[in-house]
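Question: I have long wanted to understand how a fold can be written as tokens. Here is the record:
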Amino acid sequence: MGSLPVPDALRWWWQVSNRRDEYARAVLTLSLVVLSISWYAWLTRKSRKADLPLPPGPRGLPLVGNLLSLHPELHVYFAELARTYGPITKLQLGKKLGIVITSPSLAKEVLKDHDTTFANRDVPAAGRAATYGGLDIVWTPYGPEWRLLRKVCVREMLGTATLDAVYGLRQREVRRTVEYLYSRTGSQVNIGEQMFLTVLNLITSMLWGDTIKGEERSRLGAEFRQAIGEMTALLGMPNVSEFFPILARFDLQGVERKMKVLASQFDRMFDSMIHKRLNIMDEKGREESHDFLQFLLNLKDQGDAKNSLTMNQVKALLMDMVIGGTDTTSNTVEWAIAELMNKPETMRKAQEELERVVGKDNIVEESHLPKLHYLQAVMKEVLRLHPALPLFIPHCPSSSCAVGGYMVPKGARVFVNAWAIHRDPVLWDKPLTFDPERFLIDGKWDYTGKDLSYIPFGSGRRICAGMAMAERMVMYALASLLHSFDWELPEGAKLQLTEKFGIVLKKATPLVAVPTPRLSDPKLYAGC
């Protein structure tokens, strides 16, 4: 036996056994068994992983794949593909592989079970151009820098304590809007535009204290809304230059160039506000202001290596707040008023609840909101039918991962179609009907992403950082508009509920309505 060529590990085992060291022999034997089992399991997993197929999907053309078959209303097109190919679908977008998820169980695998793997983004050229190279909370890769940005936003800007502290700002802007609408009694009003300006004033007040008022209100509100609308459109636009690496530098559709022009408008505004604030800090000291800009500048100057920001990161966060908070919130309120106008009985129930809770001789305060259960259900139903981001921000796996028995390769662009999940007849009774009472019958639905059948703000690590602020602002604005006014279409107009796809879901036709005061005392329409 000793003359045979024996591997070192086995030779040592033989020698140990000859010395009758039972304990050492048992330990060594167990180690070899565990090692063998682990090696076999690894080989098996590797084999299975390699054998997993890609998800099914429509056949594409040579070179371009499925690019030419994409429909402008991507959320609807993706939902149609799911009916044909199943809840996980593959699309070949030039050299880029797209994966579409259209069921709660598979969304759970992506957003919960394999959350860390899918926590990164596939950053588009438009996103990099808008956010100083992708330095904001939306596009920054998952890791220490992203965790710092998330902590800054959620704890300092959008946490409960901060939102409570700036209630006065929300009240001021909403009351100013009510006063303006009262001055427009009997006239046509663009609901989305007015709500956009309300939210823009609120956010800029929270950021650096300025607000748009007087004659500038309509002019600047329209300009800002158009600019942000164009930016979100560019972010949601399929960009051919990204699907073929060899074409990336040519920017064939001008997406990157257009975004840089739009972003420069905001960059000049940010630079102006930062310059003013730095001058104030030099003259009066850094503790003079307590808004978000001041906090960011303090963090930039005083933070240690692990907890400091660059100036471009500061401006990227400001960009997130201005773009991410305005269009989404104003669109949700616009959708809510439109759906309620389409169902007058539902609007009447919401207004009756407001009369009981608030009273017709009083104005809405945020303290009333927790008691407005029917209006809460209205908001939830609006977000079910018209989620602000119908496909969320696409995810990008950091390594290849099995989902639903199929392989999702590293670097794929992964879409979760929340819009389709929210309209699935298997999950929802009469899913295309606007029915807030479904949320009163079943009170389990919330915005935290626990149940993947209802995910208007997403789920997992990348769940929307502005969820708490959006909920408060939508509820407060909607309650104030319904309590203060009745709403009708202009004579001869027809209500349109058609959607227009973008990274943010909008009404294809802006809602123009005529307000009529509901409260008897004109003093209740005075602004703050």
About this structure: Residues 1-20, 22-36 have pLDDT under 50 and may be disordered. Residues 8-51 form one domain. The longest helix spans residues 311-342. The chain has 19 helices and twelve strands.
